[in-house]
Amino acid sequence: MSQLLIIGLGLIGGSLARSVKQTGFCERVSGYGYRDRSLKKGVELGVIDDYTLDLDEAMASADIVVLAAPTLIAGEMMVDVLPRLKEGAILTDVASVKGSLLEAAVAANDGVVPPQLVLAHPIAGSEQSGVEASVADLFVDHRVILTPTPETNADALATIRAMWDSTGAEVVDMGVAEHDAILAATSHLPHVLAYTLVDALAASEASEDIFRFAAGGFRDFTRIASSDPVMWRDIALANQAEILGAIDQFSDHLSTLRDMVQNADGEAMHDLFSRAKAARDAFMIKKGD
Amino acid sequence: MSQLLIIGLGLIGGSLARSVKQTGFCERVSGYGYRDRSLKKGVELGVIDDYTLDLDEAMASADIVVLAAPTLIAGEMMVDVLPRLKEGAILTDVASVKGSLLEAAVAANDGVVPPQLVLAHPIAGSEQSGVEASVADLFVDHRVILTPTPETNADALATIRAMWDSTGAEVVDMGVAEHDAILAATSHLPHVLAYTLVDALAASEASEDIFRFAAGGFRDFTRIASSDPVMWRDIALANQAEILGAIDQFSDHLSTLRDMVQNADGEAMHDLFSRAKAARDAFMIKKGD
Predict the structure, then answer these.
(1) What order of strands is seen across the sheet that includes strand A170-173?
(2) A69-104 as b/e, with b when 16 or more CB fall inside 10 Å?
(3) Of A72, A73, A85, whose CA–CA distance to A34 is shortest?
(4) Interacting residues of A249 by C-beta distance below 8 A, sequence separation 6+
(5) Which residue of B has its CA nearest to A173?
(6) Nearest to B277 among A181, A226, A273 (CB)
(7) A280 vs B226: CB contact, 8 Å cut-off?
(8) Rounded Cα gap, residues A42 and A25, in angstroms
(9) How far is Cα A100 from Cα A188, in angstroms, rounded to an integer?
(10) What is the spatial distance between Cα A123 and Cα A104, in angstroms, rounded to a whole number?
(11) Is the dihedral of CA A132, A133, A138, A142 positive or negative?
(12) Which of B138, B225, B119 is nearest to B179 (CA)?
């Protein structure tokens, strides 16, 4: 292995390109996209070796095709990409939602799961975006979740696992539905809450003073509200049902806490805060924070 | 100046003690508390010079008394502390809520605002607590909000301003009500949301996997849920009305975003996420993040 094609060169695709070139996992990395701005930049920065705006040309020699476009565009592209995969080539992705992409792939493949499709989600990134922010070690010690189906080709799965292993990531397997539920809770919901909080405060009359007197805790809490709006719109649309469920579960708990505040129930609040602190502290000890 | 007394030696009181001793703003720093564990530790660590469990003795020679106990206890102590202030001495505090403490002081002072009381709120701290975590430079480049009233003695105000200036903090003045509203939005509400999120996830069936696959964004977002439960119970009780208002305002906005997700209204979500990102990015540029 051989030829890698990145479709949609941004932070994640660019960082993967840098890593596989650096380790030699791939001989050559090419780029494809609708526009050439990021691709030109990618060549200038040495992230990719070459690029084309012609999909036929791009896919003719690619052994591994990484669909790294925003989630919804990635879904729409399935119909163009799948039929152009060369014999024995593998299609993979980096999207934050797996169910919607699997559906799109099945719809684009006569109702059948494409065996050469290996869905993958590297849990890495930052509030920065774009190929300019890409780094070769972005995935080191980060988890990459693979969501193979019973139809997934075993060799294709092994190759994508080896690719992510080579980046220094910790690769784990999970079901598609389980992935989307867990990510809704740990990532999509927190982003929804952070965006909501910042927007609510910015809309308030006192917003200037509010932001002026915000401190470190606020900075950390709202960091993810500086994430890419297009990416998060797509995620919210693609993982709609799970995110609605997560919002509702959160709202129920917030309503319970609101009652405690309203009733000045200090004991119940102390219990809740202590439970939450213990859960987070235990989580951080495991993560080595 | 001269003799400083810290009532309730924890992270904030301990850090202030270290700073005024290091800069020479005070000659001597003593401690008082109900129990001697933290006070003993404070002497061992060189944070304070001495301590007593006798309030009369503690206050006999103190020129500045810093009420650094948790918010509710600080309010309850007003009735014991105010009458014991020596002639010309100043009482100040470090609590996160000002209205409830001012009320307690007025109630303990025959319905009159004590002129020698200067309410102050250093916006610093961390999810750590206790005198062991205290450091002399905790307040450097952090804001300290003073909330003087028309009745506040001008010399007392100037002294407390000078004390906080000496720690490297940026000192600003604000009304009591304005302080409590702004802090509800920027600090108390985010803590409520972080505690609620972690508790909701910990209560979920999939909690083990949820915490296992949580990434950096989640770690930052929930950092404040590792804060001291007693401190935050007290704040929630002391700033009840403002916090209820902040929760309701947030819930309205969350409900609006939920509708957007439910209606798959990508344009509205993109607008909201873009607005929030712009507001936060502008805020971070001002803060030099």
Answers:
(1) A120-122, A143-146, A170-173
(2) bbbbebbebbeebbeebeeebbbbbbbbbbbbbbeb
(3) A73
(4) B200, B204
(5) B213
(6) A226
(7) yes
(8) 19
(9) 15
(10) 22
(11) negative
(12) B119
The reply to whether residue A237 touches residue B269, judged by beta carbons under 8 angstroms, is yes
Whether residue B128 contacts residue B100, with contact meaning beta carbons closer than 8 Å, is answered with no
- One-letter amino acid at A110 equals D
Best A98, A129, A198 residue to mutate vs chain B (most B CBs within 10 Å): A198
Question: What is the C-alpha to C-alpha distance for residues B31 and A16, in angstroms, rounded to an integer?
Answer: 56
Nearest beta carbon to residue B277 from set A200, A225, A269: A225
Strand partners, A121: A145
Tokens of B51: 């301590």
Q: Provide CB contacts within 8 A for B81, sequence distance 6+.
A: B7, B55, B59, B65, B67, B91
Q: How many CB atoms lie within 10 A of CB A208?
A: 10
pTM confidence score: 0.88
> B111 vs chain A: nearest CA distance in angstroms?
24
Q: Which helix (H) or strand (E) holds B6?
A: strand B3-7
Size of interface A-B (CB pairs under 8 A): 287
- Could you give the CA distance from residue A81 to residue A58 in angstroms, rounded to a whole number? 10
| B266/A181 touch (CB, cutoff 8 Å), yes or no | no
Gap between the Cα atoms of A80 and A62, Å rounded: 15
- Distance of alpha carbon A215 from alpha carbon A237, whole angstroms: 32
In which element (H, E) is residue A173 found? strand A170-173
ipTM (interface predicted TM): 0.88
Amino acid at B24: G
Cβ atoms within 10 Å of A109's Cβ, excluding its own = 17
Per residue of chain A (289 residues), what is the pLDDT tens digit?
A: 589 999 999 999 999 999 999 999 999 999 999 999 999 999 999 999 999 999 999 999 999 999 999 889 999 999 999 999 999 999 999 999 999 999 999 999 999 999 999 999 999 876 678 999 999 999 999 999 999 999 999 999 999 999 999 999 999 999 999 999 999 999 999 999 999 999 999 988 888 888 888 877 788 888 899 988 999 999 999 999 999 999 999 999 999 999 999 999 999 999 999 999 999 988 777 654 4
Q: What is the DSSP letter of B86?
A: P
